[in-house]
Amino acid sequence: MFDGDRLERLISAHFDGVLTAEERAELESMLLSSSKARRIFLDHADFHGLLRDQAMQAGGVRWLEKKAEPRRTPSLFRNPAWLAAGLAACVAVGWWFLPKPATPPETARITHPADDGVALLSMAVDVEWNGRSFSQGEALPKGLLSISKGTLRLDFYSGVRVVLEGPARLELLTADLARLDEGKLTAKVPPPAQGFTVLNGNLRVVDRGTQFGMSVNGTENCTVHVFDGEVELQGEVPEATARNLFEGEAVLINAGKSTPISADRRSFADPAGILQAASRESDARMEKWREQSEVLRKASGLLAYFDFEELDLPTMTLPNRASGASADSNGSVIGCEPLSGRWDRKAALGFAKTSDRVRFRVHGASPSLTLMAWVRVDSLPLDHNALLSMAPGEVGEVHWKLDRSGRMLVGLRADDRQEYQSWERLESPQVVTPNDFGRWMHLATVIDSEHAEMRHYVNGRQVADGPLGRRTPVKLGTANLGNIDSTWWNTQPVRNFNGRMDEFALFTRALSSEEIAAMR
Amino acid sequence: MPTPSSIDENDHTTKVQGLFIQHQPEIRGFVLAMIPNFSLADDVMQETFLIVTKKAASFEIGTSFAAWVKTIARYKALEAIRARKFDTLSEEVLEALGSEPHEFAGDTDERLVLLRGCLDQLAPQARRSIDYRYQNENLPPQIASLMGCTVQSVNVTLSRARTFLRECVQRRMASNPNLSHV
C-alpha cells in the first residue's frame, strides 16, 4: 500500500517540475506497484489538463481583473477555421510558419504581469549577490535583494531613490514599502512619494520628506538619521523615544532602548562617490573586454565579428572586425538606435521597429557553423523573434531566433520543399523568461557536422543538444541580424527582434563547449 | 470528383478529429503528465493531432478513443523526451500509465464551466498561485519570487488549491446532474 497524501504531494510536485531525484524514484515505485496509484495519477493528470485548458481559454483576460467574466474564446482545436489553417500550414508551409498552438492570437497570454516590478535597478557597483542576481537596468520584482558587498541604487516606482550599501538584505514589498534586515540605506523621497516606509522588525520608519539614512546591524541594532525634512517612527518604538525626528537628528535603537545621537551623513555612501566608482568599474570592464576582443578577432574560422563599437554614423556602417575580413562584409545598419551596452561605455544597437536590422553578406558554404551574440531581450512579443537569418529561401539557409515562450531555436534547411520535414532544427527549453527581460545574456548555437549534432548555449552553459540528421552544408549569404528579409516570402509574418545586441560573431566551424564557456 | 469512399473517409477523419477536440483537456493532461512543460506539451499536442488526422482510418468508432489516442500521444511524447533529454518519469512508468484502463470523462465542457465557478472560490493567494502557474506558465520558484514567499509554501499552496478545485468540481457535478441541459 501507499500513503495517499504523500502520493498526491509527489504527483503535484511532478506536474510543477519541482520533484527531486529521490522523490521521483519514490513516485515511480508507487506507480509501478499499484494500479490504484496509477488511476489516481491519471485522474490528477486529467484535472491538470482541464486547469491548463481553462487558463488558455481565459488567457485573453488579465488575472488582475478578477471580476471580469472569462471570455469563452475558441481555443486551438475548437475553431474549425483555425484548425483548417493550422493543418494547411503544417503540410504546405513548413516549420517557420507553423502557428504555435500555445498562443493563437485570440488567447495570447500575458507574459509580463504589470504588477511584477516595484523598482528599477538603476546602478550596481562592485556587487556580489547572494542568491538571485539582477543587472543594471533590470526591473526588480517583489522579494528579497541580498548582497554581500557593493552598492545598489534602486529607483522605486513611487519615485523614491534608495542607495543600499552591502552587506545588506532588503526585501522589496511594494513601491513604497521595504524591509531592511541588514545593511545601510539612504532614501531620497520626493513629495509625491511621501509616506515611503522602511520596516525593521516591528519598527516602522515613515518618511515625511525628504532624505534619511537607516542602518541595521544584527538583529538588535538599528539607527535612523534624518538628513533633511522629517521622519516618523511607528510600531514598536522604545519608550521615551521621540516619535518625530527632524533634520540633523538621529536615534540609535539597541535591544529595546533608544539613544538620541546626531545625524552623520558621512557614515553613509556619498552619491558622487558612487558615480565615480561606477565610472571606474565601467572603465575596467571596457579595458578587460578590449583585451578579450582583440584575441577573439584572430580566432580561427571567424568570418564575421561585430563589436558594435565605432559605428560610422554618416554611412551607418558597422565594421566587420574579424581579422582579414574584407570591407564588403561590413554590416549596413538599417534603423536601429545606438544605445549603451552591457556597461555604460560599451556601445550597442537597439532593435525595436519592424524595419530594424543589420544586414551583411558572407560567401561560400560551410559544413559547420557557430553563432554567438550578447543580447538584451526587452520583450518577446512575436512568435518568431529573429536573432539572425541567413540565405533565406536557399537550401542551407539558417534561422536563429527566440520564440514567444522564450525558447532558443535554430533551423537549417536541408531540402527545398516547403515542408516541416525540410528542416534540421533544435529547440531549447525556455531560456528567456519575463524576469530576464532587460538582462544581458550570452547566447550561442553550434551546428556541428563532424559530430552530427546541434547545441544551444546560454551564458556559456549548454542548454540543449540534438541530432543533425542531414549534414547539409550551411549556405553563407545575405544575413540579417535581428530580422529577416521579407522580400522572399509575401506572407512573411513580422519577426523583428526587440532588445539590444552589443557583440556578435559567426564562425565557420563548430566551437567546443570549452571555447564557448570561455567567451562568456 | 470525390468518390463515395473518399467522402466516407473525410467524414470519418472529421469525426475522429472531433473526438480529439472534445477530449483535448484530458489528452493535454496526459501529455503534461509525461512532459511537465506547457510549451513542449503544446508541441506534442500538435504533433499528436497531426498523427491522429493521418491515421484516423485506423481508429474504429465505438472502441476506446482514450486508449488509441494515448498510444499516439505517448509515442510522440517519448520522441520529445528522448530528443531533449529532460528529467521525467521513466519509460517503464510511462508505459504502465499508458496501458492503465482509464477512459476520458464525457463531460469536459461542463467541468470547464464548473471549474470557473470553483476558481472564484479560491482564497486570493491560492488564486494568484494558480493563475501564475497555469496562465503565466510560471514554475514554483518563479511564483515564490513573484509573491515573496518560499518555494515550499508555493508547492503546498498549489497542491491544496488543486485538491480543493477537483473536489469542488466533483461536488458540483454530483449535485447538479442536469447541468448538461443548461
UniProtKB/TrEMBL annotation, chain A:
Species annotation: Luteolibacter yonseiensis
Superkingdom of this protein's organism: Bacteria
Domain LamG-like jellyroll fold: start-end pairs: 367-514
GO molecular function, one term: sigma factor antagonist activity
Keywords annotated in UniProt: Disulfide bond, Signal
Any coiled-coil regions, as ranges: none
UniProt xrefs under InterPro entries: ConA-like_dom_sf, Ferrdict_sens_TM, LamG-like
Protein name, per record: LamG-like jellyroll fold domain-containing protein
Gene3D superfamilies according to UniProt: 2.60.120.1440, 2.60.120.200
SMART domains noted in UniProt: LamGL
From TrEMBL, chain B:
This protein's name: Sigma-70 family RNA polymerase sigma factor
Lineage: superkingdom: Bacteria
One Pfam family here: Sigma70_r2
A biological process from GO: DNA-templated transcription initiation
Domain RNA polymerase sigma factor 70 region 4 type stretches: 114-165
Limits of the RNA polymerase sigma-70 region domain: 19-85
GO molecular function: DNA binding; sigma factor activity
UniProt record similarity statement: Belongs to the sigma-70 factor family. ECF subfamily.
Alphabetically ordered keywords of this record: Sigma factor, Transcription, Transcription regulation
InterPro entries: RNA_pol_sigma-70-like, RNA_pol_sigma-70_dom, RNA_pol_sigma70_r2, RNA_pol_sigma70_r4_t2, RNA_pol_sigma_r2, RNA_pol_sigma_r3/r4-like, WH-like_DNA-bd_sf
